[in-house]
Amino acid sequence: MAILDIPNLPALATLASEGYRPAEAYSQSAPTALRVLILNLMPLKEQTERQLLRRLMAAGPLVSVTFLTTESYHSTHVSPEHLRQFYQTFSQVQDQEWDGLIITGAPVEDMAFEEVAYWPELTKIMDWSAQHVRSVLHICWGAQAGLYYHYGITKQKLPAKQFGIFSHQVLADSPLTRGMASPFLAPHSRHTYTPEPEVAKVPALQLVAQSPQAGVYLVVDEAKRWIYVTGHSEYEADTLKQEYERDKAKGLPIAIPYQYFPGNDPSKPPVCTWQRHSEMLFHNWLSFYVSGAMPNAGA
Q: What's the total number of domains in the chain?
């Protein structure tokens, strides 16, 4: 019961069918709830809503979620009515204080950041968040965008899509990695990467988890409570399967996701082997960074 009820939101109805229950006894203005904005830049809005709500519901603390959409770009993969009913715009929330902000990935990796239609609006939100949000969690392209805008770290093109489930090592003590096993598994689905030497050159940044194959994974600016996750720990068990089948149907060059299908057989249903890591990541983010109850990293 970690999510306050969002009336009529289809994603919550789906989660309810799986046994999750919103905290219906509370109102959205409950003072004990952590207030989290989600800037949803993914094309399949409802799928991303469900993924993130599932992780937040399992994380523990009571959370009040508000979904945010861009004013400078209108998504074509969701109905305008869905956005009107369940989303707000930056101009509607900018005068408020928030405990957390999630900036999702977006399918614009092949474009220069400045060429993205909503880039000026996104940078305005990132600037605003430094004064109005306690902690920001950046995911995949959202992480690349934040690292580029705040620190000048570029993204580099990969020779082939980084696609599948990869093993990662915890490199440093951080409240973010408390209780995480090492190694742990996490999904990646991207055409670009963040160069580790560029991260290492920024004193404010700490690389706390990395994959020998997938590279930089978790980066933290502890002073600002900004978190950068280059993968998609929020993904459901079948998300990569859907991406694989979509790209195959389009005739795009796509490999079978690495370490994903049992026996590397696409006819077999995949298993969410990264669930424990994902739950710990969101638990630690909410419990330590969003709540403000930051422990000593080595405690």
A: 1
